[in-house]
Amino acid sequence: MSRVRNRWQVECIHWVLNKTFREDESRIRKAQGPLVFNVMRKIAMALFKQDETKEVSIKAKKKMAGLDNDYRSTLWSLGLKRASRGFPLNVKFNDQSAITRHR
Questions:
Q1: How far is the C-alpha of 42 from the C-alpha of 20, rounded, in Å?
Q2: Are 74 and 102 in contact (CB under 8 A)?
Q3: CB neighbours (10 Å) of residue 85?
Q4: What is each CA distance from 10 to 4, 53, 67, 95, in whole angstroms?
Q5: Of 1, 5, 29, 44, whose CB neighbour count within 10 A is largest?
Q6: First CA to last CA across the chain, in angstroms?
Q7: Cβ(71)–Cβ(54) under 8 Å?
Q8: Is-contact 52 100, C-beta < 8 A?
Q9: Which of 5-14, 63-72, 91-100 has the lowest mean pLDDT?
Q10: What is the average per-residue pLDDT within 94-103?
Q11: What does the pLDDT read at residue 102?
Q12: How high is the pLDDT of residue 56?
């Protein structure tokens, strides 16, 4: 049962990355680019999920972060606070899908 649940958690992460960050449409294919951008998207997704200042979707938070410097600063300070306390951002890097999907 836990294997099935873990599999669906991974699928959920990929679904959010595809719908919100349009990861499948990415044209980044050279060298370590796909892996680097996959990690950056996962960090951004973790910051959006952990932010409790706005009660909106991850897609809306992404748009607000692009338009509002104060909100973007809030997200950065949230990430820096957690990192300085030794807490991870709860980002899972458990697969090589960023490399294999773009080949």
A1: 11
A2: no
A3: 7
A4: 10, 26, 30, 9
A5: 44
A6: 32
A7: yes
A8: no
A9: 91-100
A10: 47
A11: 42
A12: 92
What mean pLDDT do residues 80-102 have?
58
DSSP 23: G
Which tokens in the block code for residue 50? Answer: 């952990």
Query: Can you tell me the distance from the alpha carbon of 79 to that of 84, in angstroms, rounded to the nearest whole number?
Result: 9
Q: What is the pLDDT of residues 10-66, one digit of tens each?
A: 777 888 888 888 888 788 888 888 888 888 888 888 889 888 888 999 889 999 999
CB atoms within 10 A of CB 38: 23
Instruction: Give residue 69's domain range.
Output: 2-101
Tokens of 4: 């099935």
Phi, psi of 41 (to 5 degrees): -65, -40
Query: In angstroms, rounded to a whole number, what is the distance separating the alpha carbons of residues 19 and 15?
Result: 6
Considering its fold, how many domains does the chain have in total? 1
Total length of the chain:
103
* CB-CB contact of 79 with 47 (8 Å): yes
Rounded distance between C-alpha atoms, residue 50 and residue 53, angstroms = 9
